[in-house]
Structure formats: C-alpha cells, structure tokens
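Entries read sequence, tokenised fold; example below:

***
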Amino acid sequence: MMRLILIRHGQTEWNADGRYQGQSNVALSDTGRKQAKFLAERFPVKHLDAIYASDLDRARETAECVGEKLGVLVRPEKAFRELSFGDWEGLTYQQITARWPEESHKLFTAPDELEIPNGETFQALQKRALSKINKLCKEHVDQTIGIFAHGAINKTILAGLMHIPLHYLWSLRQDNTAVNILRLDDGYVTVELINSTSHLGEDMISQGL
C-alpha cells in the first residue's frame, strides 16, 4: 500500500492572465508564494517519506515550501512536467480560438481526440505520468509520498487512477495548490480527498486566489 498526496502548484502571473503555460518555465507570482506558504503551514499530513516535483520552477518552488516545513528534500522529476501545449503556450484561450477554432473546441469537448499543434496529446501525458507513478509504487511500499505537479497532468493522473475516460477529463477540477489524497493498494485505489484548498482560508478562496 502507498499513500499518494498529489498537489498542484501555486498561482503564476500566466494563471492570473489566463495564458496556457504548458512546459514554459513560469515562476510563481507573489500570490502563488503566499498560497505555497499557507499550504506548508496547513499541510494535511504530518509526514512524507519522499517528495517528487515537476522540474518546472512553479511546481518545484511550491514543493520546496512543504519540503522545508516537513524536513524532506525535493526530488525533481521531468516525468511530472505539465502537458506540452506546443504552439499554444503563452497564449490565452481567446487567442487560441481565433487561430485554431476546431482544435480549441476539442480541448474541452473531446480532449481525448485533441492534437495540439507541435504539442502533446492527453494520452501521451497520462502514459508518462502513470508509468512513473507505477514505478514509485514499487519503490515506496507502505509509505506516503508527495507529488507536486500541474493542472492538466494532475487531472490525467486522477482520471487514470479512478478509471475515468479522458473524454471526461474536465469533470475533475484542480485549483492552484489543490491537494488530492489517494491510497493505492495492489492496484485498488481509494480516494480520500480531492481538490482541497481549505489550507488557503476563506478569504483567499473567496477572492479566487
């Protein structure tokens, strides 16, 4: 049995502007750093045996806040990078829709059929994420680990572990610094918590931060 704590990074300026980040290395904003601090101070588990994080700065920095609080070193992991949005990175949804109307429509209506120009498919994203998680399950038997990653990859991980088809990917919400807790036991998954941002407090949540 392994307990998996899956967390999304804090807010960035591109998040606030509605720009697609993908694998662009965008840092946390001041708000994102505050969120990460709240997360560390009110983390829902008292101990982690290991912490893995996407090697992109926004996920790594969020992880390091928690790691410092719990006394655990962060292990950067390229497998947990965000979906590559290819030509869409740095653009807003409105800009993407204007140039790629058919593809942008599929993003939310049929993500399992989407092919982003010079980007990655959700199937490929899910495959690389779950492949790494399967390896970690063997390395961390009876342990609790944290994985700090991104919105789209977290959704594909949750969908895969919960046997939800990628077509319904957007039914899973992942806010900034959202915490998900799952127990993996010989291939059987128990969901204990999903998309929790209670650590941010009512004021930050009500402001959409």
User: Anything to note?
Assistant: The domain at 2-83+121-206 is CATH 3.40.50.1240 (Rossmann fold). The radius of gyration is 16 Å. The chain has one domain: 2-83+121-206.
